[in-house]
Amino acid sequence: MELVKVKKNFQITLPSDLRKELNIKEGDYLDINKQDTYFIISPVKVIPSDQAYFHTKEWQEDEAEADKDIAEGNIEGPFDNINDALKALKAD
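Request: output the structure for the sequence above.
Response:
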């Protein structure tokens, strides 16, 4: 257990070993919830709204499938020109 002091403006300092272990950097966000008489503090990574699609379940499943295809050699190309690439796309 780490003991921290509540300072002016109700600020606390997170112990350095916990910051390092959880990779918390200055400017990061923390989610704070109350559970009974305890505070539960969890690091949160904020995702810009224009990048949220990348973190959807469907996108991650498609990425995993693409990684598997690449690992198994199920790929076309590389192509020397756009015409050859278009021919390969139309062949499927």
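The radius of gyration is 24 Å.
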